[in-house]
Amino acid sequence: MLALAGISPQVSRLRLRPIQSGQNTAVVVKPVQTEVGESDMAGLPVEYGSQIGIECYGRATAAETTDVVVDSLAESVIARLLADPTLGGAVSHLRFVGASYDFDIDAEATGCATLIFIARHRTAGTHF
């Protein structure tokens, strides 16, 4: 989440209300699923592949339609994360794999692009 600071006034891991009153964008980072890679020998580092969903919410403004706000925010998020695909060394590699869209989710001209990334990361030792 720290890598996304400044992209939107609201960056969080919780989505009670997608966009706070008075704001037109929000970013929510959610872990979706993690899969353990096979390790050949106990005690060796274990590699994980974690799917991360990043919800990019946008609300229409007087100057821009909902889709333009959402697309602009999604482009900014992708550019920021892929500028350093190791997230400062926190992961081995981050890869963008797709997106889904939903518009007018709250009857307030709000849309959402959910960006899906796969993060490869390791832990020391066995996973048991």
Q: What would you note in describing this structure?
A:
By secondary structure, the protein is mainly beta. It has a single domain (2-13, 22-123), classed as Myoviridae tail sheath stabiliser (STM4215-like, 2-Layer Sandwich). It has 1 helix and 5 strands; from the N terminus they run βββαββ. The chain has a 5-stranded mixed β-sheet. The protein is elongated. The mean pLDDT is 84.
Q: What's the structural blueprint in terms of helices and strands?
A:
Elements: E1 11-12, E2 25-36, E3 46-59, H1 66-83, E4 93-103, E5 110-123
Parallel strand pairs: 1-2
Antiparallel strand pairs: 2-3, 3-5, 4-5
Q: Which architecture per CATH? A: 2-Layer Sandwich
Percentage beta strand = 35-45%
Residue windows where pLDDT falls under 50 for at least 5 positions: none
What string, H for helix and E for strand, traces the elements in order?
EEEHEE
DSSP helical segment count: 1
State the total count of DSSP E strands.
5
Rg, rounded, reads 17 Å
Oligomeric form: single chain
Distance between the termini: 28 Å
Q: Mean of residue pLDDT?
A: 84
CATH class: Alpha Beta
* Major beta-sheet overview: 5 strands, mixed
Number of domains: 1
CATH superfamily: Myoviridae tail sheath stabiliser
